[in-house]
């Protein structure tokens, strides 16, 4: 769950440090006080899009920090392990900075990461449901994704295989279309690739072969120079006429006679001994080199010829043997894609036919799964809507089969609803009001198993457009979700606020001519006062306080029922 949140110089927030707890937390306050700004800060913390416009006027940067504590089986740990981010203490500390220059800085447990990686981590921890989430229901093209969320365990393995095949199908189809657009150029390219592959493979190149051959050529072409230098060196060290080695040996013997008389003499004697034995080793090595040294004109000719072959290939395909071999790998892959998979010797057309057959088969399998789970979704939505006082509503999942395959299969899914008896069943986007959309989205969120996987769920005024007993029912649903995951909820409804375990008041104040947002955790008495204000508006009377007390008492009874 989100344990601590720190916000500095963000929008109208100068600085806030907030400690959150498990269960259901509500944030209330007047419109414009900054409630949604706090949720926006959390959204940025888990990978939301940032802008320098969000930096508080006059500040150089905004800083948002969050400390999350996760359960042992949370999927976030798998992502962190993959990225090499330490989490041995069980905490995930995220820091994000927005700079006036437009630059962003993101860190997780001290490691710098990019925005896309932060978003990948964040989506495993926080699920933000705002008023804009209702727009997902207003987009029929998104309905299939919602159904797949509901059927996730059953459909995901098939969908993953299908999408892998589909991506390969699209790639091969593009190659095939390109081939048919210009058969002559295609054939010429295939012939060119075959020629280049044959030329390089015939040369039978080896890594770093050019460097080894160059060194051998230099040794052969400089044979006389090398021989003279080695011989001169050997004669200088251990020649019969003037031997440096004999002279140093004599000096070493002389020093050994007096080395016990003084420590300095001992050091000189040891140094002379070291020099003598080192020269002995060098003389032996030079002698070996002279013994093995021989000039081979035929070998020099072979090396020169081989280097010339490599030079010709370098001129065409790369500056080194490594680059030439890399080019060979690249064009072999291109030829395999153009000519068909070499593993099964099928041509491109056959590959496309085989993959398409597999796609059709898996698309049908996904369609069967979706239709089966659609019935379960309909039953589950009806149950949830009954709890939310839409017991007369009829919810249906309609299917239409696409003529062409897409990345999700062959199904077109759209939600239909009949909100009142006797009315025609219509697409959800044409018949549901704002309050009905709020209830349908909450019903779906209550059901989807995916919600249980994240550590925190945030509801940003999802209860807009409802009131009375519907508001109480929505409060019950949100509280039910909070028994399985931490919930943060922004609300203007007293019924929802009364269901909370923790209540924070967000206020906007002016200090020194600057507007800033403050947050205060309310005790039971202050929570009653705030709920009274939510009930009555500006004038809080004794009667409204009694009403607030009664609302909280009834909420506690509802909470006790839900927990049992």
From TrEMBL:
Membrane-crossing segments per the record: none
Pfam families in alphabetical order: SMC_N
Family annotation (Gene3D superfamilies): P-loop containing nucleotide triphosphate hydrolases
Alphabetical UniProt keywords: ATP-binding, DNA damage, DNA repair, Nucleotide-binding
Annotated NCBIfam families: recN (TIGR00634)
Function: May be involved in recombinational repair of damaged DNA.
Family: Belongs to the RecN family.
Record-given protein name: DNA repair protein RecN
